[in-house]
Amino acid sequence: MPAVQAKSISCPNCGGPVALRGFAHTLSVVCPQCMTVLDASTPEVQILQTFQGKTRTQPTIPLGSRGKIGDTQFEVIGFQIRQVDSGEDTYQWDEYLLFNPYRGFRYLTEYNGHWNFVNVESALPEPSRSAGKLAMRFGGKTYLSFDSMTASTVYVLGEFPWRVSVGDSIACQDFVAPPSMLSSESTSGEITWSRAEYMPGSQIWQTFKLPGSPPPAYGIFANQPSPYGGSVGSAWRTWLWLNVALAGLAFLFMIISPGHVAFSDHYAYSQNVRSDAAFVTPTFQLDGRDSNVDLSIHTDLENNWAYFSFALINDQTGQTFDFAREVSYYHDSDGSEGSRNNSVIIPSVPSGQYYLRVEPEMAAGSPDVRYELELRRNVPNYGFFGLAALLLLIPPVLTTFRKGSFEAARWRESDYAPSSSSSGGDD
Amino acid sequence: MNTALFVIYGVLLLGVTGVAEYRGWSWSRINQQRVLPKSIRDNPGAYRSSYGGYSRYIGGK
Amino acid sequence: MSSPAANCPNCGAPVKFLWSSAVQTTCEFCHSILVRTDVDLKKVGEVADLPPDASPLQIGSEGAYQNKSFVVVGRIIYEYEQGTWNEWHVVYNDGTSGWLADAQLEYDLSWAAQPPTPLAGADDIRQGQTYQWNGKTYQVTSRTRAHYKGVQGELPFQYWDKSDLLFADLRTSSGEFATIDYSENPPLLFLGRAVEFDELHLKNLREFEGWT
Questions:
Q1: CA distance C151 to C87
Q2: Inter-chain CB proximity B41 and A315 less than 8 Å
């Protein structure tokens, strides 16, 4: 049996040649010379529509281009521009008709640099609900309602297996499950479902071997896959494990930093005493590595303050750590302010024999205060663990925020955007 | 990819925390002096603390 | 599978049957529609030139569905508002027959079936109506007025020059397909499913210029 011949016809309007790449499937074709829409369903080619008043647009992928998507080679045989007028906004997108004589027809859509590969589906989606929103279940995925609109054809080129005419309009509804999108098109009683898969521009350029580079994609498209995919979940899981490790580290230091008391005594300070307030403690031993020293002050202050300046002095080397602390405690029938106690951690104290120089100070006329000083060697500094826990929060919070921003940008283009205007592009 | 970066960040953080704990670091403002004359032990009043003389120093932990 | 050859009563050319249970066939040479009686072939009509169509299938194409191989032995061509489609008559290797619809290269296999529930009449069938058959919900997806364009090859029944054609297609959420043919009374039901080109492992297909 001889191969089916590719046909070419003569345009009845201008006489120019019109190639038919779709064989006998082509019902309407646009004459590339005079832009008249022709009825190619019968051998007597008739004029369907004279196509006027529009400047010529060159489709980004030229008609006749061939490219392999999946296992199948397709040829671009048709092109149309669709338009939606939604109150304040008008936006357009391009559609390409792809053809393979055995596997049939597919479509490519392009909007603002976002491309989709579209296949008509035979099975019916099942209506459902998800997160309080209308959704469709199809092929094991749940597609959330995104938007609906009326789209009309404003420009056509090439061939179509149906009778196309500029001005045709259809009602569309889109449901998304990125990177897929389910769309319904309804005309006079028949609903057609198709499924789109998001395709990066670079893949289109590679498939059809187009020159240059693909136009940049603006904004976030309805079914554009999120670069944050499952990373939010994995970020929080990683965070959990890092916190477990941090807790383990804290537990470890709880054990190896026993904080045993190197020195402890109690004193009284009286303003009445004539002699100098400053005094020194007996010497005590601080051993082990250069760990910290925790000095805590416990007083019996009542509605007063006391100021202590300290010096921790190495008896052998004379190395001195100079510091001070204020303790203040006030209370009345409404509540209290401050605390009777305070403490300080002295960092990296080398081991050796030490004594403490203490100089208390109070406001003139204050009553006597009794206080206790306790020096503990090598205590865990929980402040560092607290800080580490806080810093560990940054990456998962950042990722969650970024993903949230991305999804918010996506849904801002839908019919469900928080603002009242339903602007934005889609398909 | 991001998980790997996060883990590296976390391990570094834990490492620094461990070193800080081990070396006994602290946030407190401590002034260090090299050598102090022995006589201070006998005469504590002669020592001039860097923190002395403030009538109300807002310090604390 | 084949039976003794006979001769076309119109032009005398030899007529070979690929399928022993064929009720009707067409003569390759004179395009007469021939019906099999007990003893011989009777001419009942003629097929005008078939409209040009671009189905990759042809009589003699072979394929297999779920390990049952089949041969394409005949077809009915319909035309409707949006073009034409073919109902290819296929015969399986166990002698049973079924249909492979090719509508703009969307393929649906089906077999004649007894309606499990009564079918709505031609005036009552509406888009969106549902039927519960074999545990699946079938929904009417299209209601198509078509006209008969021609026949070719072997068919399991007598079918020619039909004037009043209404079809209703039904689909499920898992890919099942059904069609109700209102050209007969009571209407005929065919149950089946949508299939992908690759699922059928088709061979001996038509070739297209410029496509290897």
A1: 9
A2: yes
Mean pLDDT of the region A390-396: 93
| Rg from Cα positions in chain A | 40
Give B4's contacts in chain A (Cβ within 8 Å). Answer: none
Cα→Cα distances A376→A164, A292, A384, Å? 89, 9, 18
User: pLDDT tens digits for B4-59?
Assistant: 899 999 999 999 999 998 888 888 777 776 666 666 666 666 676 666 555 454 55
pLDDT band at C49 (very low <50, low <70, confident <90, very high): confident
Residues of B in contact with A343 (CB under 8 A): 61
Percent pLDDT > 70 in chain A is 96
**Chains C and B touch each other (3 or more Cβ pairs < 8 A):** no
Burial class (CB in 10 A: 0-12, 13-18, 19+), A263: buried
Six token digits for residue B48: 């001039």
Could you tell me how many CB contacts below 8 A there are between chain A and chain B?
A: 169
Torsion angles phi and psi, residue C173, rounded to 5: -80, -5
Q: In the numeric block, which tokens belong to residue A2?
A: 């001889």
- Compute the nearest-CA separation of B56 from chain A (Å): 7
- The answer to whether the CB atoms of B3 and A238 lie below 8 A apart is yes
- Distance, C-alpha A352 to centroid of its chain: 55
pLDDT digits (tens, 9 = 90+) for B36-47: 666 666 666 667
Residue written as token pair 């007597």: A44
Residues of A in Cβ contact (< 8 Å) with C52: 24
The pLDDT value given to residue A153:
93
Query: Contact C56/A120, CB-based, under 8 Å?
Result: no
Residue A380 carries which side chain, given as an amino acid letter? Answer: P
What's residue A274's pLDDT? 65
Burial profile B46-58: b = 16 or more Cβ within 10 angstroms, e = fewer? ebebbbbeeeebe
Sign of the alpha-carbon dihedral angle for A406, A411, A417, A418: negative
Q: Could you tell me the two tokens for A338?
A: 């401050």
ipTM of the complex: 0.92
| Interface test with chain A among B3, B8, B11, B13, by most A beta carbons within 10 Å | B13
Tell me the average pLDDT of chain C: 91
Token digits for C26? 């067409």
* Residue where the block lists tokens 């390990």: C67
Interface mutation vs chain A, best among B3, B32, B34, B55, most A CBs within 10 Å? B32
b/e per residue, C76-113, with b = 16+ CB within 10 A? bbbbbeebbbbbbbbbeeeeebbbbbbbbbbbbbbebe
Between C159 and A241, the more confident residue is: A241
Helix axes A382-411, B2-22, angle to 10 degrees: 160
Lowest mean pLDDT among A5-19, A39-53, C157-171: A39-53
> Which residues on chain C are in Cβ contact (under 8 Å) with A9?
none
- Taking the CA atoms of B16, B20, B25 and B29 in sequence, report the sign of the dihedral they define: positive
Partner C contacted by A5 (CB < 8 A)? yes
User: What percent of chain C has a predicted confidence (pLDDT) above 70?
Assistant: 98
The set of chains that have 3 or more CB pairs under 8 A with B is A
pLDDT bucket at A131, cuts 50 / 70 / 90: confident
- pLDDT more than 90, % of chain A: 67
> In chain A, which residues have their Cβ closer than 8 Å to the Cβ of C104?
25, 104-105, 161
Chain C residues with beta carbon closer than 8 angstroms to that of A138: 173
Distance CA(A213)–CA(A219), nearest Å, equals: 18
